[in-house]
Amino acid sequence: MTTDPTPESARALLDRHGLPEDVIDGVLCLHAQELAALQRLRMDELDLTGQKARFVGRIVDLIDPTRTAAVPVAAPPTTEQTALRDCIRRALCEAAGFGFAWGTDMLEPDEYGEVADAVLAVLPAPADRAAEARVRALHQEYAFGGDPQVYCAHCNQISGGWIPWPCPTVQALAAEAPHAETPDAEGLPARLEAALTERFTALGNPFSEMRRQEQGPDGWPASRPVGPHQVAEVLRELLAAAPAVVAQPGKEN
């Protein structure tokens, strides 16, 4: 009997019994498929719907070797995208009257995440300013002695030749700059409102049916409907301050 607290893997167990590699692979694949099938039966019993069903379903698909290849591997979001997404989630939370619960365990870990993704889909793609800054830091102008011509120090070092300044890399960055600018924010609420309406309708939860609980002018509890337009207005205000949020993603607001 072993005293090693580390559990033996299934592959190691089968290998210890002298089974061929192809047999081991087949056994493990069948076991994974059976496990995934049991998990799907359990999902049906729990009658999972919406975001939870999709989330659990993706995890089960990762177990099933027949479906793993079909699971898309998304590129990890940048720090800026994550901070902006959290900013949008917070705006949705505050607009619904639950701002007091932000940052607590009263909300799901990714509350309003699906709607935030829908909003990000209608926003212009953010430029990778950190990567651009690194490139610009490398490509600097350099004057050689009394030569009136200015060269790129980095390109000269890499190519061993004399590349005039501004070099092709810097010119390409300058050409892309207009496309990276954020469009005028005046039409942003309308686009956000349309995206929110479409998303909540698709989820079977019309946002116009949500109500915000607050204190009325007479001091008694009151409520008012909160629709996509109101949320879009809150988002516009927060997104106007988004550069500060993005620049300091770890800072509390």
Write a short abstract of this structure.
By secondary structure, the chain is mainly alpha-helical. Helix content is about 55%, strand content about 5%.
How would you describe this structure in keywords?
253 residues; 3 domains; two-stranded antiparallel ribbon; 11 helices; 4 strands; disordered C terminus
Detailed description of the structure:
By secondary structure, the protein is mainly alpha-helical. The chain folds into three domains: 14-70, no CATH class; 79-124 and 182-247, no CATH class; 129-180, no CATH class. It has helices at residues 10-16, 21-46, 50-63, 79-95, 113-122, 129-138, 153-159, 168-180, 188-202, 228-240, 242-247, and strands spanning 141-143, 150-152, 211-215, 221-225. Strand 3 and strand 4 form a beta hairpin. Helix 2 (21-46) runs antiparallel to helix 3, helix 4 (79-95) packs across helix 5 (113-122) and helix 4 crosses helix 10 (228-240). The chain is flat. Residues 69-73, 179-183 and 242-253 have low confidence and may be disordered.
